[in-house]
Amino acid sequence: MRRVLLLVVAMVAGLVGAVASPQVANAAEVVNVVGLSPTRTAVFVRSPAMNQVVQVQILHPAGGGSRPSYYLLDGLHPGVNESTWTNATDAERFFLGKNVNVVLPVGGFASYYTDWDRPDPRFGNYKWETFLTRELPPIIDGQFGGNGVNAIGGLSMGGNSAFILAARNPWLYRAVAGFSACPDTAMSMPAIVASIAMRGGDPTNMWGPINGAGWRDHDPALVADRLRGKALYISTGTGLPGPHELELKPQLAENILTGGPVEAMVFACVVGFEQRLRGMGVPAHFAYRPLGTHSWSYWQDDLHDSWPMIGSAIGA
């Protein structure tokens, strides 16, 4: 009888091992860590979902201890060697002394930080939602002091993506921020389609046929109730030249000629999104700037303005 029992236990253990081993084999893993400063670390993660190594930079306190994490996403043209948040704003200096991990993915050109239905000939195999919501958080929490409390935010494309990811994974985030972003996929669909197509990608490879079920499945406005109870911050300018257009910068003309009309469209879209949330009784803070274009100086201002709300929600 004892031999039979041992044999059954061994068989069960073998079956459990056979089921569990693929999960272990397919887990994301850190392949390299580079300390860039006492408060900034580059982490290179092998993503099974995307079958590539993804760099993530973390802004963090100099000391130890556990802390919440703020995933901060880039725009359509993300940095190549670092997030544009650290080379176009004062984010690194701003977060000094704050008890939070600021998690900055590097890459994701025109990806909308989502899982694409099909590999795209221009962009490759994008599976950003899986990476950001399944593969990366256990690494941040297990190896870099994260305590499991998270917020997510971003600008423009990254802001839309932050709300999409939060609506699809509401258990993961306590706060969401979007700067110059309109997270109403139906309203912003023409801009999303154009932004991908103009960069050589096929928008139907992302969520399937335009305005089909896949696009509706990624529309926070349709499932805004999932955002209830979170701290929500959305900002936009009007597109009219503002105080930062008085600064002499190399991109000044582009900010006015291109960033002005883009921001005006975002403004109109955000007004509609606010009406949608109000109609559903979902509280959110909308920061309307009377002036300002679609440009980094304003997103730096938004980062500062939103932090008391975001930081408080995650206990940072």
Write up what this structure looks like.
The protein is α/β, with parallel strands linked by helices. It has one domain (about 25-315): Alpha/Beta hydrolase fold, catalytic domain (Rossmann fold, 3-Layer(aba) Sandwich), CATH 3.40.50.1820. Helix content is about 40%, strand content about 20%. It has ten helices and nine strands. It has helices spanning about 1-25, 85-90, 90-95, 130-145, 155-170, 185-195, 205, 215, 250-280, 295-315, and strands at about 30-35, 40-45, 50-60, 65-75, 100-105, 145-155, 175-180, 230-235, 285-290. It has a nine-stranded mixed beta sheet, sandwiched between helices. Strand 2 (about 40-45) and strand 3 form a beta hairpin. The longest helix has 29 residues, at about 250-280. It is globular. Residues about 1-25 have low confidence and may be disordered.
The proportion of residues forming helix, as a percent range, comes to 40-55%
CATH topology: Rossmann fold
Number of separate structural domains? 1
User: Overall pLDDT, averaged?
Assistant: 90
Q: Major sheet, described briefly?
A: 9 strands, mixed
Summarize the structure.
By secondary structure, the chain is an alpha/beta fold. The chain is built from ten helices and nine strands. It has a nine-stranded mixed β-sheet, sandwiched between helices.
